Amino acid sequence: MKLIRFISMKIFYFLALIFYLQSIAIAEDIRDFQIDGMTTGESLLNFFSKTEINESLKNPFYYPKSKNMMIISLYPSDSSTYERYDIHIKKDDINYVIYSIKGLVKISFDECLKKKNSVASEIENIFLSSETKDYIDNYGNAYGDSEANITDFILTNGRVRVWCAKWDQNNELVKSYNWWDSLNVNMSSEEQMDFITNEAYK
To answer: Mean pLDDT across the stretch 71-93?
Structure first.
């Protein structure tokens, strides 16, 4: 019962964040969207110390076919809606420029599917003129039977995505990175999107 109550509160705060974003402005540019004040094109050094970043660089995630970009995980303050950030930066970039940032809320896949449409609907109210796509992705079969139930909002210079992730806990990579089922909000630059499409899995 305590776990259910905890998850419900996390989702409440998550939706509250979306309502707050909607109240700020009707956004058309990816840089108008923020996750806990962070957006693409900025340096991580504006938000985290070099010590914190270097600690996260001890265990980066690289895609199967390219190491030009990596994902590092950082953890927010207690006041954040999210439980973790996953951030794309370029390898050997001393400025730690953000190319993509994702906020995660730990939740079961079935519960996530019940909440995702409400979150996506609020994001759609922010990006009124964006192209929207709904689909299921299996990560190029790179992580066993893992899958994601996704809604994308395509902007002129990037993408905002909300999705539910279900990770195959029998997969060795999933276990090694301790990935857990989650509700996610992500913002990605055009360059990061191009990397995923043309390098990461090919």
So the answer is: 92
* Domains held by the chain: number: 1
Q: How crowded is residue 22: how many other Cβ atoms within 10 Å of its Cβ?
A: 15
Which DSSP state fits 19? Answer: H
CB neighbourhood size of 24 (10 A): 11
Q: Which of 121, 60, 98 is CA-nearest to residue 188?
A: 98
Identify residue 157 by its one-letter amino acid code: N
Residues 6+ apart with CB under 8 A from 194: none
Could you give the percent of the chain with pLDDT greater than 70?
A: 87
Question: What is the crossing angle of helices 109-126 and 2-24, to 10°?
Answer: 10
Residue 104 is encoded by which pair of tokens?
């995660």
Given the DSSP bridges, would you call strands 100-106 and 84-90 parallel, antiparallel or unpaired?
Answer: antiparallel
What's the whole-model pTM score?
0.79
Quick: pLDDT tens for 177-187. Answer: 889 999 999 99
Structure tokens belonging to residue 119: 């979150």
- Asked if residue 55 lies in contact with residue 180, where contact means CB atoms within 8 angstroms, the answer is no
Range of the domain at 80: 2-200
The region, left, alpha or beta by phi > 0 then psi within -120 to 50, assigned to residue 41 is left
Question: Using CA atoms, how far apart are residues 174 and 34, in angstroms rounded to an integer?
Answer: 28
Average pLDDT, integer, range 183-196: 95
- Confidence category of residue 1, pLDDT binned at 50, 70, 90: very low
